[in-house]
Amino acid sequence: MDKHKECRVLRAKLRDLYEDSIDAAKFGVPTDEIDAKITFLQERLSQLEQSIGKNKEYEGLEVPEPSGFKILGEVIGICGYCEKEVYSGRKYPDPKEGLFCSYYCRKRNRKKQKDPSE
Ligand SMILES: [Zn+2]
Question: 0.85 exceeded by the pTM?
């Protein structure tokens, strides 16, 4: 599938999940599973957008990750790059590299290790 098309599909899926989450909350049903799916798809979407150069004009700004990610689970540590708290629901597990709050922090950390002057 074309990457731009995949982005549109992911956005549509996310819209559905947001509605599901709102409905579930309305009826008092636990939303953990839906929220976890939302987090997963949001990450996937931002990786995809990054890979096709969407939002390129914003790269290099101070904020190391897109805001609005839902914080899920418990605090499990501190991000190895930006030192923010990392929650179990948004963990990027890789014991060799350490704990990062997002894909971007891990990527930036790798870059920093490759070229410390940066
Ligand atoms: Zn971070």
Answer: no
The answer to whether residue 86 scores a pLDDT higher than 60 is yes
Distance from residue 80's CA to the centre of ligand 1 (Å): 7
Q: Which long-range contacts (CB under 8 A, 24 or more apart) does 53-61 make?
A: 54/7
Dihedrals phi, psi of 21, to nearest 5 degrees: -65, -45
pLDDT number for residue 11: 93
Q: 23: CA distance to ligand 1 center in Å? A: 31
Q: How far is the CA of 43 from the centre of ligand 1 (A)?
A: 14
Beta-strand runs (E) in the chain = 75-78, 85-87
Domain extents in the chain: 1-55, 71-118
Amino acid at 64: P
- For residue 103, the surrounding DSSP H or E stretch is helix 103-114
Residue 67 pLDDT level (bands cut at 50, 70, 90):
very low
Residue 28 Cα to ligand 1 midpoint, Å, equals 32
First to last CA, the chain: 35
